[in-house]
Design goal:
- The chain is mostly helical.
- The chain is about 70% helix and about 5% strand.
- Strands 1-2 form a two-stranded antiparallel ribbon.
- Helix 2 crosses helix 3.
- The model has no long low-confidence stretch (mean pLDDT about 90).
């Protein structure tokens, strides 16, 4: 193993260990080598190793027992959504599962926003929607589109929806460039999203849910075509 760079060494080591666990180099249920040997192998101190272990324990990837050792946990049972970006990098099949959750959560957010959005939030949504049409280039349109969805989540009045929205977007950041398909035409991207914002503005929960489902289904289809 090559020694790690000294800057942000705990971050680098944490990432390397996550990679080794998620790729099966350290399979679930196995014990990691003794700390001294592992630290020497990565070219770090045992203190640095312990800090990285602490983060991975919180992420649900490791468990440490005094006098026994450090064991790799089953991330599918104990891990959190923060693992998704790394999982996507290793297996694009995760994208389809993320999109399934995106459809369900996105439709529910639109429905709740239609009922709970304040006048100020409706005004913000209109401005952010206009920014989608005004954006130039697929990347800029995609980012503008994301801001509309963040605003919809805020309009529910439930901060957990906002965190879930952030989690889902962060999950496919590693392949975001390959998912730009629905956003290469700003006018078309605006038109798809306009029905959702209009239903929320009208306070029609049912229409907002249906519009969101249609939007999410169509954009998902186009994005998955870009991954083929």
């Amino acid at each position: 193993m090559e020694a790690l760079p000294r800057e942000t060494i705990v971050d680098v080591l944490e990432g390397r260990l996550r990679e080794d666990i998620l790729t099966g180099r350290h399979p679930a249920g196995s014990y990691l080598p003794p700390e001294r040997r592992l630290a020497d192998g990565y070219g770090v101190t045992r203190t640095t190793l312990k800090h990285a272990f602490g983060r991975l324990v919180q992420a649900g990837l490791l468990e440490t027992r005094h006098g026994v050792g450090t064991r790799v946990r089953d991330f599918a049972r104990f891990g959190g959504a923060d693992l998704l970006p790394m999982l996507v990098r290793h297996d694009a099949a995760w994208i389809r599962e993320i999109f399934e959750v995106r459809r369900s959560i996105g439709a529910l957010i639109a429905e709740r926003a239609a009922v709970r959005a304040t006048a100020e939030q409706r005004s913000d949504l209109a401005e952010l929607l206009a920014a989608v049409r005004a954006a130039e280039g697929g990347d800029a349109v995609q980012l503008a589109d994301i801001e509309v969805h963040r605003a919809l989540a805020r309009a529910t009045g439930n901060r957990v929806y906002g965190l879930l929205t952030n989690t889902l977007f962060n999950a496919y950041l590693p392949v975001r460039a390959a998912l730009v398909g629905p956003f290469t035409d700003a006018a078309a991207a605006h038109a798809r999203l306009e029905a959702v914002v209009a239903a929320v503005d009208a306070g029609d929960a049912g229409a907002a849910r249906r519009a969101a489902e249609a939007y999410l289904t169509e954009t998902e289809r186009i994005m998955l075509e870009g991954l083929v």
